[in-house]
């Protein structure tokens, strides 16, 4: 008998995951948690293991050891229930029956989903709705064989969100898409997450992802070497000063400064609000530090990623 999932369980929990293909270790000791409403971007060099991790998290591949839980249920031992509220695209572009139309393919997808225990019912109205959301209404009656690569990619996302998932996992959802379609996917992902859906997507587009992901996991050589909380990296200011270490020490003691670091020639401070920039400047000046520049310190995910992958 299956025990009911605890209501507060994270959307995705991966614990001590190892994966081998034959003698080759592909994933090493992966731990990760994704909360409901969180957008988690998985990135890393070619061959790092992103697709393997995604396939294992969705239950398509089995771990050599470790476990994966979706909404509190073990995806490898309680698969149909664990996946009941999962939407996923695990290969790009997703596979469809080329001789059937977009609508027919989504209907097949809906029928299959409904057969799973606790599987959702999807009406024809919802099929039309997701096709419209992905801007595929014009193509809905055409055979998938006639779809462009980007249109098939969007149909994949349509099928993944069809049954209103609580966990959405997308392997490279924006590869091959034009700029406007990429924006469309971002808006859909953001809107689902604000409704409580947990989203994991793999990507190589760091500057794009920095604008809307909450968390970025950096995978290299099969190890998750860093998890970057992008929300914690907002509202930082950098002060170019003659003595960054001394200036950081002075800033650190101020009540409106949450955190400081140095990046020569800068002292970088996370302020509780922009309104305190003049106060920080006044304090630095009172401390005898010469300030040459004060500006917002935008976190450069690309630079951070490059350093992290090179160090690993
Ligand atoms: N079925 C398989 N059998 C054996 N090795 C595999 C298999 N699938 C993947 N691999 C190996 O696992 C490693 C990770 O591959 P994976 O596709 O997960 O990387 P990735 O990070 O998604 O790469 P990319 O960014 O190029 O898509 C690679 O060395 C690959 O050769």
TrEMBL record:
<feature type="domain" description="ABC transporter">
    <location>
        <begin position="12"/>
        <end position="246"/>
    </location>
</feature>
<keyword id="KW-0067">ATP-binding</keyword>
<dbReference type="GO" id="GO:0016887">
    <property type="term" value="F:ATP hydrolysis activity"/>
</dbReference>
<comment type="similarity">
    <text>Belongs to the ABC transporter superfamily.</text>
</comment>
<keyword id="KW-0547">Nucleotide-binding</keyword>
<dbReference type="InterPro" id="IPR017871">
    <property type="entry name" value="ABC_transporter-like_CS"/>
</dbReference>
<dbReference type="InterPro" id="IPR003439">
    <property type="entry name" value="ABC_transporter-like_ATP-bd"/>
</dbReference>
<dbReference type="Pfam" id="PF00005">
    <property type="entry name" value="ABC_tran"/>
</dbReference>
<keyword id="KW-0813">Transport</keyword>
<dbReference type="GO" id="GO:0005524">
    <property type="term" value="F:ATP binding"/>
</dbReference>
<dbReference type="InterPro" id="IPR003593">
    <property type="entry name" value="AAA+_ATPase"/>
</dbReference>
<protein>
    <submittedName>
        <fullName>ABC transporter</fullName>
    </submittedName>
</protein>
<dbReference type="InterPro" id="IPR027417">
    <property type="entry name" value="P-loop_NTPase"/>
</dbReference>
């Amino acid at each position: 008998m299956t025990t009911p999932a605890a209501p507060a369980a994270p959307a995705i929990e991966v614990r001590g995951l190892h994966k081998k293909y034959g003698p080759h270790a592909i994933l090493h000791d992966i731990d990760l948690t994704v909360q409901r409403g969180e957008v988690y971007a998985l990135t890393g060099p070619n061959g790092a293991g992103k697709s393997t991790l995604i396939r294992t998290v969705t239950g398509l591949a089995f771990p050599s050891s470790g476990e994966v839980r979706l909404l509190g249920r073990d995806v490898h031992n309680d698969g149909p229930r664990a996946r009941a509220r999962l939407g996923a695209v695990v290969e790009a572009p997703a596979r469809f029956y080329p001789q059937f139309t977009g609508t027919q393919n989504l209907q097949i997808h809906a029928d299959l989903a409904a057969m799973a225990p606790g599987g959702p019912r999807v009406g024809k109205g919802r099929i039309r709705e997701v096709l419209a959301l992905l801007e595929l209404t014009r193509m809905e009656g055409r055979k998938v064989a006639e779809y462009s690569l980007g249109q098939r990619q969007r149909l994949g996302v349509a099928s993944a969100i069809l049954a209103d998932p609580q966990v959405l996992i997308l392997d490279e959802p924006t590869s091959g898409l034009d700029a406007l379609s990429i924006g469309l996917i971002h808006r859909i992902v953001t809107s689902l997450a604000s409704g409580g859906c947990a989203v994991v997507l793999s990507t190589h587009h760091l500057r794009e992802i920095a604008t809307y992901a909450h968390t970025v996991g950096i995978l290299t050589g099969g190890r998750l070497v860093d998890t970057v909380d992008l929300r914690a990296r907002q509202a930082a200011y950098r002060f170019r000063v003659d003595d960054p270490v001394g200036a950081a020490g002075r800033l650190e003691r101020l009540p409106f400064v949450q955190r400081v670091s140095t990046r020569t020639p800068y002292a970088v401070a996370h302020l509780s609000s922009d309104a305190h920039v003049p106060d920080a400047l006044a304090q630095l000046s009172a401390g005898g530090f010469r300030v040459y520049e004060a500006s917002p310190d935008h976190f450069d995910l690309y630079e951070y990623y490059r350093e992290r992958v090179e160090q690993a």
